[in-house]
Amino acid sequence: MAVYTEVSDEALTAFLAEYDLGSLLSYKGIAEGVENSNFFLHTTAGSYILTLYEKRVREEDLPFFLNLMGHLFRAGLSCPQPVKNRRDTALGSLCGRPAAIISFLDGVSVKRPTVDHCRELGRALAGFHHAGRDFGMSRANSLSVDAWRPLFEQAGAQADTVAPGLAERTRADLSLLEASWPHDLPSGVIHADLFTDNVFFIGDALSGIIDFYFACTDALAYDLAICLNAWCFEPDGRYHRDMGAAMIAGYQEHRPLEPREVEALPILARGAAMRFMLTRLVDWLNVPPGALVQPKDPLEYDRRLAFHRKSSHATDYGWSE
Amino acid sequence: MAVYTEVSDEALTAFLAEYDLGSLLSYKGIAEGVENSNFFLHTTAGSYILTLYEKRVREEDLPFFLNLMGHLFRAGLSCPQPVKNRRDTALGSLCGRPAAIISFLDGVSVKRPTVDHCRELGRALAGFHHAGRDFGMSRANSLSVDAWRPLFEQAGAQADTVAPGLAERTRADLSLLEASWPHDLPSGVIHADLFTDNVFFIGDALSGIIDFYFACTDALAYDLAICLNAWCFEPDGRYHRDMGAAMIAGYQEHRPLEPREVEALPILARGAAMRFMLTRLVDWLNVPPGALVQPKDPLEYDRRLAFHRKSSHATDYGWSE
User: Fold this and answer.
1) Nearest C-alpha in A relative to B39
2) How would you class B100 by CB atoms within 10 Å of its CB: exposed for 0-12, middle for 13-18, buried for 19 or more?
3) What DSSP letter does each residue of A173-202 carry, written as one string?
4) Contact status of A27 with chain B (Cβ, < 8 Å)
5) Of B1, B42, B108, the CB nearest to A24
6) Residues of A with CB below 8 A from B108's CB?
7) Fewer CB within 10 Å, N or C, chain A?
8) Closest C-alpha among B45, B23, B295 to residue A205
9) Where does the record place the Aminoglycoside phosphotransferase domain (chains A, B) (predicted)?
10) ipTM of the predicted structure?
11) With an 8 Å Cβ cutoff, are B31 and A290 in contact?
């Protein structure tokens, strides 16, 4: 959580002159997001988030993300709406970085989700998939099964310094995942990073979804598998089957899973855990000196993988007929 | 700029239950302030700043700061208003830290102040001194002339690693300041840290003053001398006499300086520069590993001291009859 780029009042005022957002009342850098610089922005027209995209986001992907947000918002999803400038584009430039203004969304992220939160999340995820159906753009998932072995090779011999045996069991998992990864499931736009920090609640009601910067085109059920990993485990690797059951049931209220998706759920969940274990492992082993961001523990996902290795049926995750 | 303490939704909700602020809509850590953790807080009652006081603020000083804000707000100054909880106190406890909620103030800090900004600041400073007149509490300035030599001894032999000759010229200045520091000037509550980041403007109008955590009881003209240092110099040490003149004139519209204050202005300005040079020097030489905050350059104030050494009369700062 950090602000990587300082924005002066003069630079911001010049930037805002391209928008119909009235005049500037205040802005504050917010300690949120690990990839970009974000500012809370208040103008006479309302409250917004100003994002400056830092180097980890590929500039050529930004139109996909911003158009997707606009599409989902118009489809009725509660998500930030990109604000277009007078040149009719949501993507501008500020302090030498690509920059965008999106509407401010109220809501609070829950640190410890309950069964009810999981049910709400399942419903919202199906709503997201539904709203994305007729989105015209596509973007390959650059962090899917083909990317995992190259990621693992980056960690290489260092993996076992993080946990004994990590290299061997990861290699075995990778072989299995590569051999059995399903490629024919119903696909569409997925969020691909719907962790608790990207979901807002007001009271017990889900109020919105944010941070679409990993969104891509992939199997819809894989998105659900990511959420099961992100929401229904304890850090020690214990799975809350009741939370998983509520999430799956909430999802199925709006979009019933097809039999082949139900069958694939365990391998998708195992793959999702592998994806986050690997990116965390690489970040863990490559903390730059003076880093502002504390890397996340890859072993949380290694422990989830231990659960997935023992789970062969969707019922293990809480699915029921 | 950093958030030192993470606050969970559960902890915050429990904390807010002691306040009449409706229900929580959102909160975000803001990258502002180097001493404390600050959050933008939105509830059904409005917008606020939540501050958790970290270890550099002495807990026993907090009632002074919070009562002062309340006093100044009631006296009509545009500054944050501390919000009292149901136990009728503005000071609570959150995540093991003293914590307070204050009203959110719109406005933008200017990075490069103009002559007009300086005049506005002068007026607001006199208004601050006026509003503080009947404040019943007092707090000694722990960073005044008596504190400077001990601060300098902390840097000691390392001073010359920052700039050649820094130790010798600082020692000479300290002797002069200690010998000639005025102790009989009109005194009262001063802000003592009114840098540009602590002053908000909306358009060209000053909209508020924030961050009272260095406020103390001291010579009123010393506060003006701090502002002349903070607002009217280029980083290379050049003084903008026209900006100083505007600030002094703005101040005198509301509170004309007494002759002894005019006479003392050069030594006060020199002392103010010394105070910030020294605290910056100590911070510069003691950056903890993994620090989230980039220390400020002490040499900016060493260069200001060079100007002050050549300036013996208030007219050098822009004062005129």
Assistant:
1) A30
2) buried
3) HHHHHHHH----S-EEEE-S---GGGEEEE
4) yes
5) B108
6) 9, 12, 24-27
7) C
8) B23
9) 27-257
10) 0.88
11) no
CA nearest B105: which of B200, B41, B205?
B200
DSSP-assigned beta bridge partners for residue A11: none
Is B295 an 8 Å CB contact of chain A? Answer: no
**Average pLDDT score over residue span B276-301:** 85
Q: Does A8 touch chain B (CB under 8 A)?
A: yes
Average pLDDT over residues B26-48: 90
Neighbours of A158 (CB within 10 A): 15
- Average pLDDT, whole number, for chain B? 94
Contact B29 A31 (CB under 8 A): yes
Q: Would you call B3 and A1 a contact, using CB atoms and an 8 Å cutoff?
A: yes
Distance CA B133, CA B264 (A): 21
Neighbours of B10 (CB within 10 A): 12
Q: How far apart are CA A78 and CA A72, in angstroms?
A: 8
Q: Which CATH number fits domain B115-317: 3.90.1200.10, 2.40.280.10, 1.10.720.60, 3.40.190.10?
A: 3.90.1200.10
Q: Could you tell me the two tokens for A78?
A: 């509660």
Q: What is the gyration radius of the CA atoms in chain B, in angstroms?
A: 20
CB contact under 8 Å between A30 and B24, yes or no, is: no
Average pLDDT score over residue span B234-249: 96
Q: CA-CA distances (angstroms) from residue B316 to B245, B307, B319?
A: 9, 10, 7
Q: Which two tokens stand for residue A102?
A: 């999106």
Mean pLDDT of all residues in B183-197 = 97
Q: Can you identify the CATH homologous superfamily of domain A9-103?
A: Phosphorylase Kinase; domain 1 (3.30.200.20)
Helix and strand tally (H, E) in chain A? 10, 9
Give residue B1's pLDDT.
Answer: 43
H or E segment and range at residue B238: none
